[in-house]
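Teaching assistant's notes for section 4

Start the section by putting this record on the projector. Ask students to predict, before seeing the second block, whether Riboflavin synthase will look compact or extended. Collect guesses on the board.
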Amino acid sequence: MFTGIVETMGKVDSIVIMDSTTSGGGGFSITVGDAAIVLSDVNLGDSIAVNGVCLTVTEFNAERTCFKVGISPETLRKTSLGELQVGEKVNLERAMSASTRFGGHFVQGHVDTTVLIHSITPDPPNSLILTFHVPAGLETDYLRYIIPKGYVTLDGTSLTVVSVDNANRTFCVMLIAYTQEHVVLPLKKVGMKVNLEVDQIGKYVENVAVAMLNGQGGGSSVIAEMIKKMVDERVTEIMPPQ
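Reveal the predicted structure now:
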């Protein structure tokens, strides 16, 4: 579990497509440097989020400045990690500890999909508005979990949604000056992919609500009746009786 509060930006030192070493696991591996801040208490097998992707540390050097992670085929399909280049900066965050201040929101490090940067607009005097396009045609429509003033995780950064345009399948977030200096998003350009993890609470609420409406949560449930009433009223507003 993570918070979405980026601890530092590391740098991709090397990428091996087919790493035959023990720490590489015979697959795709990445070595990340400039990572001393997140390696002070690291052990093999620990989790570090790299651009929002929860990955297992398989090797680190004696100086604790760089570490290696293996990337599975599923992770390459779901995230933008396969498009990283040597020298590129990445957001890093260690898994939460019992004493961690919870400054962001519940982040699993399980990326749902990638979104494209649609536009980057200065918001004077010192902020940026970033607009992202959510792809259609996926097995799950992740746009439905994104709401104004709700949370999203973008490349591992916990951010508040400013607005959502369902018709154009876009949403916006704002980066203050401090955030611009400490995360990788401002380094990216329009059209580039960004890892998206939607707020998990929205998924859980949806599952509970659907189960109740389908009678799987107790047909006489007061909550189920309230949800059904709210849904019926909303449907009536959108499509009034003829």
